[in-house]
Structure of Carbon monoxide dehydrogenase:
Amino acid sequence: MELNDEILIDAPKDRVYAALNDPEILRQCIPGCEELIQHSDTELEALVVLKVGPVKAKFSGNVTLDKSGAPDAFSLTGSGNGGAAGHAKGGADVTLTAQGDQTLLSYQAKAEIGGKLAQLGSRLIQSTAKKLAGKFFDKFAEVVNAQVSA
């Protein structure tokens, strides 16, 4: 499954990049995130509760950041296990482009799922993933915009 989208954030690029690397901001923005622990500059551990159709699961997983293209771009990869509900792994490439005092955030994400979740059907999974990504970026823009105006 692939997701691509972009969002215009009312903040300068350096502020957006810093926010994307702030575990507390990410914890607030990730739908269902109960815990986000930063183990190093590039390693995070997450505990997320998600409901996909009739399946509700608690996922624990790890995320690795590749900041070699910073601050214009970075990549992340991760995997999570939801016990009987299944597992997921994937990654995303994020690009930040300055547009005056605003920043255009573009992303391309890929994910693979297995277990009970994979049996729900690709349309339900795709629409849920799109909705979750939308919630994340809407909340992220809201948090960053609030920081800028504070």
Observations:
- The chain has one domain: 2-149.
- The first helix runs from residue 13 to 20.
- Strands lie at 2-9, 33-38, 43-52, 55-66, 73-81, 87-99, 102-114.
